[in-house]
Write a structure and sequence with these properties.
The complex is a heterodimer of chains A (347) and B (308). Chain A has two domains: 1-112 and 196-214 and 224-282 and 324-347, Rossmann fold; 121-191, no CATH class. Chain A is 33% helix and 22% strand. Chain A is built from 13 helices and twelve strands. By secondary structure, chain B is mostly helical. Helix content of chain B is 75%, strand content 0%. The interface between A and B is medium-sized, with 30 and 21 residues. Chain B: Keywords: Cell membrane, Membrane, Transmembrane, Transmembrane helix, Transport. Chain B: InterPro entries: BPD_transp_1_N (IPR045621), MetI-like (IPR000515), MetI-like_sf (IPR035906). Chain B: This is Oligopeptide transport system permease protein.
Chain lengths: 347, 308
């Protein structure tokens, strides 16, 4: 287990620029805002996390918490406008990708960092066969001949356990079932053997039974290839089995980061507690599901102090005034709550 | 696919019969004496009128006339004019000229319209975008004869860049200006449809995926984006070839091209009903076949379309 990078939510680019840390991929104090006609939404407000080879970091949070936007910024596929990076760094092998040339960045995509998306049906091009879309990478990026690329693409389809890979090569995305389509998407993202795989809610669009299969497949491929994986999800149930560490996001910030065991056993942030409490439990059948009251803050007008304070059951006057920084507690976890120590030390 | 094609071809039959009958009925029911002025200043002799009436079955009902016409048509006989000229001859000389003009117009329309549409769709609200939007609005708003006469006068007469009319050899260079004029309005529509289509698809998930795969921008746009955005444009272009041929009357008149448009106009004025009907029937046929072709092309471009 790795240690936690402590962030004081510092000014953009102030900390650690160019300092080689040996990390595979690290995001430091990233800030992104969306400039719309209605105003500026501060979507990412100083996110810091990292992932190393062979480990899985789960990024957890509800819709609008900024988990996907962080991933898009890492990939360089943020829609600009409206999205603008206003600060921070995204370092791959210690090199800041945000200051790279477009061409340098392009080369990292697919080979260094690859991504799979939530809805494979819309993420795959409807007018090309699945095989074409996988083989394309071998042809364009590796300069393979058509027939060699096809061979490699079929191998990839085989690796993600698509039955009759050879026959499926020339099928179109709409001819695949939801689960098979996501497998094809995974095959495509792994074609160039990336070091980091970002999976953005890879199972959200799938049936529950298929979800487990896809997660197992992802976990297996991650282990085999010793990839660093960033698993973005809003489903606590999904992460427990596969993640090594979990980073919980709220209103564009990391509010808690810990290894899976600690996080479930003793959450160090009231938001995490709320999330864990809202998991439906078999022994509470017939009772009303627990929820976190209130709504996430309006990102155009984030309340002063701790952004979670209007919904927090333990909010104190200090929470409305002072923004709690993400601070290390104990050995390998961090929390952005004024009362993190109390939470961890409670019985 | 084969069954679909057969069904579509069968569907063409009632449409073909319906449209051609309508045309036949309209043309032959025009009031007035078809033989007025055929014999100089004098009234035609009865023997001539009787002969012609029998020859064209003018004493029969419109149904019988139409049935006979259709029967002859399927044997390749387009009928003969009052002056004993084969209508097939008129069509054979005029049609290639119109076809040439229409193809040139279609090519200009596709190349310029598509280029303008793709460029502006990728970069909206820029200078080029506004230029294209305004100029296409101009082309759509102006009737073709205005565009035709202005360009003919400017380029042909005032600046002398091109010959103002087209010679009987129908050289390609001569056809560029008439082609542009003929295709101008459609070109504007193609540009606008392509622009909207590109702009819509540009933010599509699959485009984002293509970028995330690390493909060069050239390929993302040229292959992934373009292929999807082309679908509505191809439909527009396909149906347009039929329209271009029928709509060439004005353009052919302006540039003195001996095509279908002029032939049909002359036939209408001189009440050569047999010629009018046959030319329009051929136009209808071209139109129907182009529509069928577009439908088939549509499936080739978009594999999600299944023919049951």
């Amino acid at each position: 287990m790795s240690d936690i990078l402590v962030s004081e939510q510092s000014k953009p680019g102030a900390a650690g620029s160019g300092r080689p840390s040996g990390r595979l991929l690290e995001v430091e104090d990233l800030r992104v805002e969306f400039r719309t006609r209605d105003g500026v939404a501060k979507v990412i407000n100083g996110v810091t996390y990292h992932v190393d080879a062979g480990e899985t970091l789960a990024v957890l949070g509800e819709s609008g918490s900024g988990k996907s936007v962080t991933a898009q910024t890492i990939m360089g596929i943020l829609d600009t406008p409206p999205g603008f990076v206003t600060g921070g760094q995204v370092r791959f092998h210690g090199k800041d990708m945000l200051t790279m040339s477009a061409e340098e960045r392009r080369r990292i995509r697919g080979e260094g960092i690859a991504m799979i998306f939530q809805d494979a049906l819309s993420a795959l091009n409807p007018v090309f066969t699945v095989g074409f879309q996988i083989a394309e990478q071998f042809r364009i990026r590796r300069g393979l001949s058509r027939s060699d690329a096809k061979k490699r693409a079929i191998e990839m389809l085989d690796q993600v356990k698509i039955p009759n890979a050879k026959g499926r090569f020339s099928n179109y995305p709409h001819q695949f079932s939801g689960g098979m389509r996501q497998r094809a998407m995974i095959a495509m993202s792994l074609a160039l053997d990336p070091e980091v795989l970002i999976a953005d809610e890879p199972t959200t669009a799938l049936d529950v039974t298929v979800q487990a299969q896809i997660m197992d497949l992802l976990a297996e491929l991650q282990r085999e290839r010793q990839m660093g994986m960033i698993l973005i999800t809003h489903d606590l149930g999904v992460v427990a089995d596969v993640a090594d560490r979990i980073a919980v996001m709220y209103a564009g910030r990391i509010v808690e980061e810990a290894n899976v065991y600690d996080l479930y056993a003793k959450p160090a942030h009231p938001y995490t507690m709320g999330l864990i409490d809202s998991i439906p439990r078999m022994d509470e059948r017939g009772q009303q599901l627990r929820t976190i009251k209130g709504l996430p803050p309006n990102l155009m007008n984030i309340p002063p102090g701790c952004p979670f304070n209007p919904r927090c059951p333990m909010a104190q006057p200090v929470c409305r005034e002072k923004l709690p920084p993400l601070l290390q507690i104990g050995t390998d976890r961090a929390s952005a709550c004024h009362f993190a120590e109390d939470l961890v030390n409670r019985d | 696919m084969g069954r679909y094609l057969l069904r579509r071809l069968l569907q063409l039959v009632p449409v073909f019969i319906g449209t051609t009958f309508l045309i036949y009925w309209l043309v032959w029911s025009v009031p007035g004496d078809p033989f007025a002025g055929k014999c100089g200043d004098r009234r035609c002799p009865d023997s001539y009128i009787n002969f012609m009436t029998e020859k064209y079955q003018l004493d029969q009902s419109i149904w019988v006339q139409y049935a006979t016409y259709m029967k002859n048509l399927f044997q390749g006989d387009f009928g003969i004019t009052f002056n004993n000229r084969e209508v097939a001859d008129i069509i054979a000389t005029a049609y290639p000229n119109t076809l040439k003009l229409a193809v040139v117009a279609l090519a200009i329309e596709a190349v310029i319209g598509l280029t303008a549409g793709v460029l502006t769709g990728l970069r909206r609200n820029g200078f080029l975008d506004n230029l294209v939007l305004i100029s296409t609005l101009f082309l759509i708003a102006l009737p073709v004869f205005v565009v035709g006469f202005i360009l003919q006068w400017l380029l042909g007469v005032k600046w002398g860049i091109v010959h103002p009319t087209v010679s009987s050899e129908m050289r390609l260079t001569e056809l560029l200006l008439p082609g542009f004029v003929l295709g101008s309005a459609s070109m504007a529509y193609v540009a606008r449809v392509a622009r909207t289509s590109i702009a819509e698809n540009r933010r599509a998930d699959y485009v984002r995926t293509a970028i995330a795969k690390g493909l060069p921008m050239r390929r993302v746009v040229g292959v992934h984006l373009l292929r999807n955005s082309l679908i509505p444009v191809v439909t527009l272009l396909g149906t347009d070839l039929g329209a271009l041929m029928g709509g060439a009357i004005v353009t052919e008149g302006i540039f003195g091209i001996n095509g279908i448009g002029r032939a049909v106009l002359r036939a209408i004025v001189t009440k050569e009903s047999a010629t009018v009907v046959s030319i329009v029937v051929v136009l209808v046929l071209v139109y129907l076949l182009m529509n069928l072709l577009v439908d088939l092309l549509y499936a080739a471009l978009d594999p999600r379309i299944r023919y049951e």
